[in-house]
Amino acid sequence: MFGRTQHRRHHRRWLTALVAAVAAIAALVAMLTTSASTALAATGSHVTGTASGRCLDVIGQSTTDGAGINIYDCNSQANQAWTLTAAGELRVYDSAKCLDVAHASTAPGATLEIWTCNGGDNQKWKVNSNGTITGVQSGLCLDVVGAGTANSTLVDLWTCNGGGNQKWTTAAGDTSAPTVPGNARVSDLLCDSVTFAWNASSDNTGVAFYDVYHDGQLMKSVSGTTLSTSLTVVPGVTWGLYVNARDAAGNVSQAGATVSITPPQCQVDTQAPTAPGNLTGSVSGTTVTLNWSASSDNIAVKYYDVYRGSTKAGTITANGTTPPATSFIDSGLTANTTYAYYVVARDAQANASAHSNTVSLKTGAACGGAVCAVTQITTDTDIPWGLVTLPDGTILYNRRDAHDIIHLNPATGAKTTVGTVPNVDETDGEGGLLGLAISAGYATDHWLYIMHTSPSDNRIVRIKLENDKLTLSSEQVLLSGILRNKFHNGGRLRFGPDGKLYATAGDAQNGDNAQNKNSLNGKILRLNPDGSVPSDNPFGNYVWSYGHRNPQGLAFDSQGRLWEQEFGNSVMDETNLITKGGNYGWPACEGTSGTCGSAGYIAPKHTYSTADGSCSGIAVVRDVLYIACERGTRMYREVISGSDLTNVQIYFNGTYGRLRTVEPAPDGGLWLTTSNNGDKDSIPDNSDEKLFHVTLG
Question: For residues 322 and 450, what is the distance between their CA atoms, to the nearest angstrom?
């Protein structure tokens, strides 16, 4: 079955029969012994085959290294009592032995056994929300041989195929998430470590793990009996710590409260870096390119601040131990104008160098580069998230934490609040009022499409905008049940040239969701404008592609192809070219890190270190991709050439801070928004954000 050869089936039937006979003899021997280890009902729980209703079982109740694994009628004995540890082990016999792949094989058909726990990857397992259990080393699924359901049928590893013989329940079909961990707190804050603690969650079957995050990035997982842990932190860097609870079935709680920390520096540093040297510059139209020699410092140079006259034009930041770059592009300047530049170096404790030499450069008569001008069109006290251009050239944008929508005339700066979207809820993180889109027939039907967080989920709704007001009585919920959490909510909406609505849905801080094709999370979703499922979707549901962590950017190129921008965890962010039904690898892959070379995973078209990326919105103008980045505080410009991204350039590096949304403007330019303050706290009107128009060359 499932692609196996007839020869293998005959061989397995013979082998199964032989093992059954051996097991019967072993069981008879066991009945005649008084071994306490086999009679005890140990701590742990059943792992039950979905197709058979029988339990994962150590053959003959043996405790000897190398004892085999089969399925057998469920009972209360120790050889069926499994415990999943924080390290990913499946332990049995009161944790004395581990489920082990014999000889650390990664081939389909590899034999399973028990063995003394040793920490090897061949003893580590991932219990997935779709019911499968996969080997960490191999990526293969725990499989009942030949799809058998009889007592004593062997269990091995096999290529995952969605069959019922590869589905297991670990807590009687548990679908209830644990409660929120309470009273998050820190102690012993040092320059490089902190102790983080919380109160226990409750769960109907018991908490198996606690997952500790900072600002949406997973730091570590600990066992369900652990209520405090030591974390490695970065001196001088502010982080927001929080924790989720997770049970053995993979259900994840909502996140606990955020605790902000700023560790002190490890040593007092009063020595400033040396001044940057040999500053030179060149001009192309209204764009200036600067280069200089690196500064030195007793510890490390962290930043270069580039000044245009007395105005800071940008900041280049170090990436971990990699020093900051020594070049800068300043675009969108006024034609026929002379500008004076100098550069200052800073270290992590804000010691600033003397400034470099000054260079004066005169721009040309006309723009000769990719970016010709930047014009601020308005400011806002909340975070602009979704943004669309109406047929008359004016703008609608929503305010994430204030939950309302603004109508802006970019020519005059005039703004009107058209209404507050009902039933929007915050997450004390990145939930709230998110994506925005208008129908293809907006001029006559006035439908505005909105993605937002509610008290129970993330959802997509549509509401009519008539006479510059939301007609709340027209609201229709098109899609609900997209899991929410503090972070990883996705949220971008985009209509495609096929007339379908595409939406990004994050994994809700549970990577298992991303690989479960029956889950709406960790996906690109595709729906008809009325909310129904398109008949040509690949899996008969709303899922268009899967294996995503926290996708946010969506844009179509001139060929109608869909590009996507995605947040990684702590290693790489990625830009993907989306294929119908494609698997983009999360959580096994992060960018090109992990088991991304495995068959079936689609590689990204470009990756970015998280320090240089954390990019949210994307736009395509004349087959050039523009990417707005938050932590990276920059905009990337990347030329689409065939199916590749080429000629990657960086603009506005630190000039405007964190950039959230970029959208095509009707004149062939861009709308660009910032997301600098209050970005992770869900508090309305505590920001100071800007909206720009960018004129492109």
Answer: 41
